[in-house]
UniProtKB/TrEMBL annotation, chain A:
Keywords: Cell membrane, Membrane, Transmembrane, Transmembrane helix. GO terms for cellular component: plasma membrane. It comes from Roseovarius aestuarii. It is a multi-pass membrane protein. This is Leucine/isoleucine/valine transporter permease subunit. The lineage of its organism: Bacteria, Pseudomonadati, Pseudomonadota, Alphaproteobacteria, Rhodobacterales.
Automatic annotation (TrEMBL), chain B:
The gene is lptB_7. One of its GO terms (cellular component) is plasma membrane. CDD domains: ABC_Mj1267_LivG_branched. This is Lipopolysaccharide export system ATP-binding protein LptB. The keyword Transmembrane does not apply. Transmembrane segments: none annotated. Residues 5-250 form the ABC transporter domain. PANTHER family: CONSERVED COMPONENT OF ABC TRANSPORTER FOR NATURAL AMINO ACIDS, CONSERVED COMPONENT OF ABC TRANSPORTER FOR NATURAL AMINO ACIDS-RELATED. It comes from Roseovarius aestuarii. GO terms for molecular function: ATP binding; ATP hydrolysis activity. Its EC number is 3.6.3.-. It comes from the Bacteria. It is an enzyme of class 3 (hydrolase). Coiled coil: none annotated. SMART domains: AAA (SM00382).
Amino acid sequence: MRNLLIFLMACAALIALPHGLSFSQQEILVFLTINILLVSSYRLLTLTGEWSLGHVVIMGVGAYASALFTKEWGVYVPFGILMGGITAALLAVALSFPLFRMKGFYFLIGSFAAGEIIRLLWKRFRDPFGGPKGIKGIDPMPDFSIGIYDFDFFEPVSYYYLSGAVVALCLWVLWRIERSPVGLTFHAVHWQDKLAEASGVNLRAYRTLAFAIASGFAGISGALLAHYVGTINPNSFDVEVMVFVLTWAIVGGTGTFYGPILGCVVLTILNEIVLREMGFEQMRPLIYGAIMILSILFMPKGLESVVQRLFSRRVPEGAKGQEAKT
Amino acid sequence: MTTFLEVDKLTMRFGGLTAVDGLSFKVEHGEIHGLIGPNGAGKTTTFNMISGFYKPTEGQVRLRGEDISGLKMHEVARRGVVRTFQHSTLFAELTVMQNALVGTHMPFRPNIFAAIVGWDREDRRGAEARAGEALEFFGLDHLKSDLAGDLSHGHQRALGMAVAYASHPDVMLLDEPFTGMNPEETRQMMDLMRKLRDDGITILIVEHDMQAIMGLCDTITCMSFGKFLAEGGPEEIRKHPAVIEAYLGGARHVA
């Protein structure tokens, strides 16, 4: 009952949130919801212990796919977004054949190389990818009305509601996966792959599964981005963006579900609002890098460890055992 | 009738070193079979080949007549041959219960779509029941919510076996299960293994603790420098001149 109340209040706060913000801040809010999905999908991949440098390019695959499906074949935009995600997931399955011959650092480098190849293909082939200039004039979401609210997708507030709903649904699915026996198996693959294999776990299949799911949701986030911005090009998905994703995940911490989300929210607010207000225009990437290094040095378990400490103090002794059991 | 588990002329070469050289032996269903030998005799290598961790250079491992050599470890496991590891190879970051739940992976295959929608309640309950059963069998049920990495050494060894047992194996390959156990724990563990055998699980065991091996095994295979040396019951092996020579050195070396 209490949880339900908190949930409803959080929903109300999230619905009311954009109305207190300026137009540019509303736009940032849209990007923030999309980035939350991106970084959460990245965490699913890190559950199996593999860190990829190609995740943002995979997001771009979703964006390009959805843009092309809607533009060239006239697919209805919401289906285009879904198909963008599916395309990204299928591509991940194909990429898994060369990439999962490697582990750890080698996988990291391999995923970076694979991502760059995809990006160069976008640049090289003007038809259908539009070359270095990318794709312009991507169909926006068609406007619609649900009676109490008219969605007008040139307004960031409307798009925020749409992307917020889509992201919330995706996060729920990711959460269910993590809490299921499948999620436990991902953990097992990470911590002791030999013992997991001896228990009958098909390592390749589970690594591929995690990679495909993570890529699918990254593709959906990319498609959401494409239909909001209306134009995409190969440089929107370069390694610089990947560094942002890594920073969110590392500063937030990947031990819990909310860690990367927390990192994404805190750093976006810091970057876009605090630093911008203080007038550090050119120096922002520098400060971003400094934050990452400082957090690795002084907060190796990320922001989530701070939250855990705050909460564990408040939880009475009796409830602690309960928590461990679930 | 085909032999239950048969190792046939198994050979493993690492470059120029022949770790196991044409080893053959048979394991009957429902017995505890020991594999002994001095250090470096190739016991663990043999284990790794049976369990699919290594692909043998030559020779075959046959389970109920089917050649399982060269299969991947999870494929061997799915045919009912489950191994434990030397040292304490566990999911140290997960709880004891979660460790056992990973062990139930084979009888209760996770299904991702059912998991998202929530149609796998039965399976989850079944897996938990089975994991609880395995923990209870090895006397770990009071430690369910502890982290596996925090357990004492003896408990960690027991948990390693509980993870294997949770998967309903036909054959358990135990790699030095008594290492680091005190005599009391060893005795308890031996009782548990006899119980496993009486449940119809065949056990193949590699061990250095001679007292445990002699007291436990129905048949013992002794190997030395990768080769078959002798086979028989505990009494036979104890008195076998070749075995004594392998362990203590031949009489000709004694000045």
